[in-house]
UniProtKB/TrEMBL annotation:
<protein>
    <submittedName>
        <fullName>Uncharacterized protein</fullName>
    </submittedName>
</protein>
Amino acid sequence: MFASGLAGALVKEMDGSSDENPIILEQLPCCQFDIFLAVYTSRYHSLTFTNNKMVDLLCFSSKYLCVAAQNLAIHHISTQCWSYSDITLASIAVQYGVRTWFKHAFAHLVEVCLSQFTPAKRRLLGHPIFIAIATLHEIIYEHRCIVACEPPELEEHALDCSNHDRCTSDWAQVWWNRMGQFILDGRNPLSYKEASQRFQKFKFGWMVDGCKKKMFEVIWSNKAFGITNELIKETAVCLEKEHIFEPCLSSDDESLGVDE
């Protein structure tokens, strides 16, 4: 009798035993739990998915291993990548082990000036990711300087080119004066593609159309900056392997309405 009475007293005091003693999940914001409940109830179909709500759902589902909710959050963020900042995408990819959009976000972040990364943004990205971005900035800038100073070589002149030396000299001069200016502009450096499009509109001195056509075939082949694009992709892949660990979760049988 005394044992059963003691057990009854303990049950009353336990969290979750009654409405007066709810289970309290520490460090769980109400907003995250609210969006989780909405997803698993009839409110799901009338729910407005904002960016913050989806990040909250991803945070909750990753912490408490809710596969269906996690898949829903990842699906929504993936289809709405354009509405999230690249820093947000990269940071939540690392924090919650999602590789889906990391390469996309990382490639865009490499194009951002380092001065725009405030201390808060650097903390959000994490030290390894920011160091990788800063290192790539140095490598790409050095490569830009090399490309600006070393125009593609005109290996064979067109048949109607009457002065090969003058043609080669004019090509190098216009390249440095125009292309070099475009890709090394301190205020507004252009991408290789944008710079090439503007560069094509200029006159090239004694260069005949045949020689000009040959050189722009080399430019449009993207041999100059294709190397940097590959380097960015390879760096993103390495960062994924080292810092983004996707959880091994069994798939839920339940579906939350995500269209495959």
